[in-house]
Every structure is written in structure tokens, then in C-alpha cells.
Specification:
It is a single chain. By secondary structure, the protein is an all-beta fold. The chain is built from no helices and 11 strands. The chain has strands spanning about 5, 10-15, 20-25, 35-40, 45-50, 55-60, 65-70, 75-80, 90-100, 105, 110-115. The protein is globular and about 40 Å long.
Length: about 120
Amino acid sequence: QVQLVESGGGLVQAGGSLRLSCAASGSIFTFRYMGWYRQAPGKERELVATITGGGASNYADSVKERFTISKNNAKNTVYLQMNNLKPEDTAVYYCLAKRLSGVDYWGQGTQVTVSS
């Protein structure tokens, strides 16, 4: 069983930055991809960014050029650097790890609140 633990959320003013971390209990090298999703109150969970085992990344249009996903295989950790944050980025951010078999693992979520 894989455990994912997110950290780094908090309260920040618009235009500020935060870096989220997702630490996995096992090797992240074996995952097909890992990513970050978010869910705002009253809305469905949505994709923010993903990164494959080979390092290829993908972003939602709303965060392109503001957010950067990266990973450190040696530390079994995936990061999300968020710059120029906007109030509409306020949400609970979840880490996802997807195995080649299609099995998904989710973290418990970390709250990001951006004040205007």
C-alpha cells in the first residue's frame, strides 16, 4: 500500500508563492505518472499538473506559466511550485500517484487559500 503525504499548503496573499510537496512511502520511479489535483468548495476535483516517470509534464491551462511540477526520485517526492497565486487558486490540493496497472493512490489533501 502506497501512502502519499502532502505538505506546504497555507494562506498567502494574491501574487504570492507556495511550494507543495508530496512524499511517497515507496519509490515514485515505478509510477506511470504522478500529479496534483485540486478541489474548490462546490466544484469538482480538477487536474492541475502531472509528471511522468520520464519527467514529461502537463498543466491545466489556468496554471500554465505560473505553476511548475517537478520530482526528486531519490527523495520519492513530487513538488508543485505555485507562483503569482490568484484567489481562484484557493482549493484543497491533492497528490495522485497512478501505477502502470491503473491503480490510483491519493493523498489526504492540503489546503491552499489565496486572499485578495
